[in-house]
Model the fold of this input.
Amino acid sequence: MRNQSAGIRRLCNLVLLVVVVSSAAALAQQDKGPDVSIDTAIFQYPEPVAALSKIDFKNMNYPVNGDVIELRNGVFRKDDEEARAKVELGDVWRFGSHALVSIDFLACGGSCSDDGLLFLFAIDQGHPVITQRFRYDAQIQGAGQSFDPASRRLTIKARSGDATAHCCPKHMDIATYRWAGDKFELEKSERVPVSSK
Done:
């Protein structure tokens, strides 16, 4: 009888543990925040510059998807039998001792993906350095970013990572980041349904 009671208690504790872990995972998925990845991995350029205003962002290299993409006149194109890629420079905002650069990266193989990228630049020991990089899924109508240099607020609108079909997103994440002196920090985010119209 004693062994049977101990076995039942262990089984009840195991069931309770599974319920608690499952509930925590469900809550974490709900509150996971915007589907925007942020790297703080530093990428330093070897060429020295006196100031960010001296950098020609239209004609430089950018770290994208594990490769270094070389933009010329603000564009990079690759078109071969296996894949097609197009990278275009978007907006460049200079503020204080930093610059924020946006890039659109469209890659096609069996299907296409469209990523928005943002690079935060600074100067470190006379060299341009990427101190923060944002990446988001731009395959939704209305996706993009905006930056207000006066308030130093960055807003990113991205497709939500809600496991919907590639063709048919159901939600958009809207994330606002505030400037914290040397990097952007998440201030608020919301997930909104996409209109079916």
Summary: The mean pLDDT is 83. Residues 2-30 form the longest helix (29 residues). Helices lie at 2-30.
